[in-house]
Backbone:
């Protein structure tokens, strides 16, 4: 006996089966009529039918293999063919460096000594060059049985490490260190095949245009074909300064700057010209041009020596463009010291003891209000003995450090630096007298007495009469003036001795 649920389901099943059978009978006649109306299509998919498949032309098939030099080795042909057909390296050029002797002179002497063939090609991207370099090494090892060396490539692990370091720098690193100056990793890969003197250079299109290796290795008769014209587009690579010098309409030099003459004398000479032009007319030659040229020298591998730095900082101190940015003279001397510290850090300059002494006078002028109209110099006081100190002029805290540093260094160097130390002390006396900083003023005097340098004591006499208070004047009269008189007094200093004694006498009478 069927259960209640079974009796309930059985009629439903029979009803559904009859409905499906009827639907099949009705649809069979309609389907047959539709088949006569619809067009018959090929049921083979397009990707299995070669006649209907879209024609795809590989870019590797369009790459031209360059003409090979006469008497070339078979290895050169194999490598160039592999670069073009298997790796997709485009715009291949082969330079034959053999027998580069004309008129008893060797053309491209540097390349002539190390290679017989230079091959240059262009890759599509840094990823392409990275992969192509790996495949080329594999090809040379297994087909030419040589162990090649490759430079300029960063593998995936090293490249990831490089990017992580850049991210960690963040905002703490200076801007120049974040700029690759056009020399990003894997943009120029060089492979020494170790076979028949063949060198392979694979570059990105942008890097190849910047370096212009064709001009470097071509014959003299063909160099005009590879000579660069003015470049209008701007980028952040190391040739940005070269573009400026070639395209600047403001340059009025009789002898143009040859940016491709990569010698220190050429670039330093142009740097000094820019410094002089800036002092004459800051609008025509702003300080930015000077900075760009110095960055160009540094990125090209030239060492920024102390002479260049001295000229640069000396120009900054005198620059109307720099000093006009500051509302007060106090801000001026504070910021000039910051500028100098940043320059040392930016170009990684290490100064010796003698070089520090050389820079000390500039730092004293930079860290004081020496250029203030009311600043009393020794020369100004001697020319006008009646002048008196009216305004208190401040100086940076680094001046006191320079005093201690100059005393320490001068005691450990030879005799010929006494004149430089004397110049430093004269500046320090003037700065301290205008600030009425008599404690450090007397320290300079004591150091001069210890060195038996009477000229410093004589130079202090006009400053005492013009700037000192009564207490300082009396101390100078008791301790220093006898030494000056004993050594002999110049006629131009006699009025100041009289003024000093008169000042003390009038104070005692009152």
Residues:
């Amino acid at each position: 006996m069927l259960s209640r649920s079974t009796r309930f389901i059985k009629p439903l099943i029979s009803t559904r089966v009859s409905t499906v059978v009827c639907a099949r009978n009705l649809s069979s006649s309609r389907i047959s009529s539709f088949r006569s109306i619809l067009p018959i299509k090929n049921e083979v998919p397009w990707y299995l039918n070669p006649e209907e498949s879209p024609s795809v032309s590989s870019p590797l098939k369009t790459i031209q293999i360059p003409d090979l030099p006469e008497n070339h080795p078979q290895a050169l042909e194999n490598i160039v063919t592999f670069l073009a057909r298997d790796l997709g390296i485009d715009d291949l050029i082969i330079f034959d460096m053999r027998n580069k002797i004309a008129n008893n002179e060797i053309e491209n002497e540097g390349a002539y000594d190390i290679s017989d063939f230079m091959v240059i090609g262009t890759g599509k991207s840094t990823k392409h060059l990275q992969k192509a370099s790996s495949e080329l090494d594999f090809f040379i090892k297994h087909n030419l049985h040589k162990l090649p060396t490759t430079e300029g490539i960063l593998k995936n692990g090293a490249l990831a490490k490089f990017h992580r370091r850049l991210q960690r720098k963040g905002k703490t690193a200076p801007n120049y260190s974040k700029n690759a100056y056009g020399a990003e990793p894997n943009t120029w890969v060089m492979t020494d095949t170790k076979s028949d003197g063949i060198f392979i250079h694979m570059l990105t299109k942008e890097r190849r245009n910047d370096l212009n290796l064709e001009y470097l290795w071509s014959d003299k008769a063909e160099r005009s074909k590879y000579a660069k014209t003015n470049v209008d587009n701007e980028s952040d690579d190391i040739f940005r300064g070269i573009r400026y010098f070639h395209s600047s309409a403001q340059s009025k030099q009789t002898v143009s700057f040859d940016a491709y003459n990569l010698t220190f004398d050429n670039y330093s000479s142009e740097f000094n010209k820019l410094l002089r032009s800036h002092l004459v007319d800051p609008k025509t030659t702003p300080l930015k041009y000077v900075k760009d040229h110095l960055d160009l020298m540094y990125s090209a591998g030239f060492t920024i020596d102390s002479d260049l730095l001295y000229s640069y900082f000396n120009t900054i101190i005198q620059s109307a463009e720099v000093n006009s940015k500051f509302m007060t003279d106090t801000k001026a001397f504070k910021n000039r010291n910051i500028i100098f510290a940043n320059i040392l850090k930016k170009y990684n300059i290490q100064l010796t003891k003698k070089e520090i002494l050389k820079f000390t006078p500039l730092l004293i002028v930079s860290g004081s209000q020496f250029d203030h109209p009311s600043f009393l110099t020794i020369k100004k006081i001697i020319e006008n003995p009646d002048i008196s100190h009216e305004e208190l002029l401040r100086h940076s805290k680094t001046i006191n450090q320079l005093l201690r540093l100059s005393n320490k260094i001068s005691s450990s160097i030879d005799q010929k630096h006494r004149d430089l130390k004397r110049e430093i002390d004269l500046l320090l006396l003037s700065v301290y007298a205008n600030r009425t900083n008599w404690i450090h003023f007397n320290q300079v005097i004591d150091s001069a007495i210890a060195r038996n340098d009477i000229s410093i004591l004589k130079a202090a006499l006009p400053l005492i009469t013009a700037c000192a208070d009564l207490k300082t004047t009396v101390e100078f009269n008791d301790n220093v003036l006898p030494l000056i008189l004993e050594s002999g007094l110049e006629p131009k200093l006699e009025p100041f001795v009289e003024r000093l004694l008169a000042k003390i006498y009038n104070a005692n009478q009152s």
Notes: The chain is about 55% helix and 5% strand. Residues 1-24, 30-41, 231-254 have pLDDT under 50 and may be disordered.
